Amino acid sequence: MDQFTINLLFVGGSFALYFGIAIWARAGSTKEFYVAGGGVHPVLNGMATAADWMSAASFISMAGLIAAGGYANSTYLMGWTGGYVLLAMLLAPYLRKFGKFTVPDFIGDRFYSNTARLVAVACLIIASVTYVIGQMTGAGVAFSRFLEVDNNTGLIIAAIVVFFYAVLGGMKGITYTQVAQYVVLIIAYTIPAVFISLQLTDTFIPAIGLFSNHTESGIPLLQKLDEVVRELGFTDYTADVDNKLNMVLFTLSLMIGTAGLPHVIIRFFTVPKVADARWSAGWALVFIALLYLTAPAVASMARLNLMTTIYPSGPTEAPIEYAERPDWVQTWETTGLIKFEDKNGDGRVQFYNDVPAFQEEATARGWEGNELVVNRDILVLANPEIANLPGWVIGLIAAGGLAAALSTAAGLLLAISSAVSHDLIKGSINPNISDKGELLVARISMFVAIIVATYLGMNPPGFAAQVVALAFGIAAASIFPALMMGIFSKRVNSTGAVAGMLAGLIATLVYIFLFLGWFFIPGTASFANTPDNWLFGISPLSFGAIGALINFVVAFTVSSMTAPPPKEIQDLVESVRYPQGAGGAIDH
Amino acid sequence: MSDHNNNAEKYWQANLRLILGSLVVWALASYGCAILLRPMLSGIMIGGADLGFWFAQQGSILVFIVLTFFYAWRMNKLDEEFGLQE
């Protein structure tokens, strides 16, 4: 069987499973559509949350980021898991007790203000739409690489699949599909990692292999990797970082951004009880950690594998001849994600860090520039080929990458459509709409959201790479602080909350725009995006934490100068703090 | 009624203390051991790297898991002790 047929079987098989689940789990009421009826088992919800959370970025890009940055990019590992601690203790149980359907629902009720509700809806939609573009393009790339269709066709296939189960099943369909998608993606991620770990370290658990001895050289794997990259002019893999303030703030921004992302928060509305919401956060973290503990191992092992492929006799010897490059390099060259240019005309592949500090040594070895460019996103996708694994593992990776992208896309689309139908239409425009009518509006807005996401995926705005920073920045600076103050303070009133959200949001947007261009229009940046220009060395990606701080300070200051919230709002705050009396009883 | 309020207030204070303690550990593992204190811990080696590197790529995630389950277990017990469970 050729590789294409195998890929088709794996991807087709997994899709058939998702379709089956979608038909089985149709939503009949708004409660089923928005929160899966509120009866999802905490362990299953943990699994669905893990799939919801782990996107194309986690599955495909994260290991590549860590491989390229080493220790410095551990920020992603800590930032994207540490947020669940905040979610578990500061948000999830209380919002579950509140017992309604959406994030703006809580903000609108708690701050007794339609303005607050609408600001929350706007933040939610900007954060979620920017996020969903990345998922759609990720799915498009996976389709085009593994099923040999062009990018746009791949995107349309992805859109139809998501449309089918998300519009039909709502949260109920999405939840059970996400459980299946989690199983597919974690198996797909783990199997190649286990084989590579066995090959390099004789240890079958990759996370342990990372800290074991490299079998061939007998020295620790990380030490070996440090030595190899150092010989080629790269920074040590385990090297420390100078700008610790920025590293701390970036990690913090990712953490509070994670905790403030609406599509993650609404998953905790689907469990039966407050106690379940607490357990569920723990289970979500366990299922996420299964991938996040493997990712750094994949990163270092893939980096070492790449180096030894190019320098089979060691970094101080001559690199391989281009004519003798392995098959996987040829495969990925055709996609343009690996590029080779023989600058010194010796027919060999010189791969090194082309920086002034390494210039002298490079010249001494007769090198005239780095000749190989490897897109870091391919590390996970090419892993099975690099490790010479059989064809079915490649098919599995294809299905896994698509599962990661589609599960996140579906969760985001649900967050968007519920904000539109529940908060905008029912909450603001037509409060008397019937349950059936609202369900129809929810499905229509989901449909429109899919069309918009597909269109943006096909014509990605020039700023596709920056948008994730934007999503996290907005969630960190506006949504997370508003929710937290709504629960932990009885004093913050509607004026304070709205002022705080706007201040945090605007400060964060302005700081991002200053360095990445106003509204991301190329060439409009006020300052070059270099560490010298950053305020106190804080990068635009790390500013979400500062935005959150501004939000808190402004909200408390303004609240203290204006009248406290009315008695019934203070009672509402009281009621979300105590689990008693929640049940599934609060309906609309 | 005042008894009930008193009870509820105690429950909330206990929750806040638990959150505060947990977040201190959360920050120590990630911002502390993995980032700011890394140079001080560089003498302790673990499998070819220093302890700070281990915390950054593995240790902090494990600490997060333990914390989240510990919090769920403690709080669910507190719910019952104060008679505030569902």
UniProtKB/TrEMBL annotation, chain A:
Query: Taxonomic lineage of this organism?
Result: Bacteria, Pseudomonadati, Pseudomonadota, Gammaproteobacteria, Oceanospirillales
InterPro entries in alphabetical order:
Na/Glc_symporter_sf, Na/solute_symporter, Na/solute_symporter_CS, Na/solute_symporter_VC_2705, Sodium:Solute_Symporter
* Similarity remark: Belongs to the sodium:solute symporter (SSF) (TC 2.A.21) family.
Q: What Gene3D superfamilies does the record tag this protein with? A: Sodium/glucose cotransporter (1.20.1730.10)
Q: Which GO terms describe its molecular function?
A: symporter activity
Keywords tagged on the record: Cell membrane, Ion transport, Membrane, Sodium, Sodium transport, Symport, Transmembrane, Transmembrane helix, Transport
- Read off the NCBIfam families from this record: Na_symport_lg (TIGR03648)
Q: Choose one Gene Ontology CC annotation of this protein and give it.
A: plasma membrane
Coiled coil feature spans = none
Subcellular localization(s) per the UniProt record: Membrane
Q: Does the keyword Transmembrane helix apply?
A: yes
GO terms of biological process kind: carboxylic acid transport; sodium ion transport
Q: What is this protein called?
A: Cation/acetate symporter
Pfam families given in the database record? SSF
Q: Does the keyword Transmembrane helix apply?
A: yes
Q: How does it sit in the membrane?
A: Multi-pass membrane protein
Where, by residue number, does the polypeptide cross the bilayer? Answer: 6-25, 53-71, 77-95, 116-133, 153-170, 182-200, 247-269, 281-302, 392-416, 437-457, 463-485, 497-521, 533-558
Automatic annotation (TrEMBL), chain B:
Record keywords: Transmembrane helix included? yes
UniProt KW keywords: Membrane, Transmembrane, Transmembrane helix
Q: Which Pfam families would you find in this protein's record?
A: DUF4212
- Work out whether the entry's keyword set contains Transmembrane helix: yes
- Locate the transmembrane regions by residue number: 18-41, 53-73
Under the heading InterPro entries, the entry gives: Na_symporter_ssu
UniProt name for this protein: Putative solute:sodium symporter small subunit
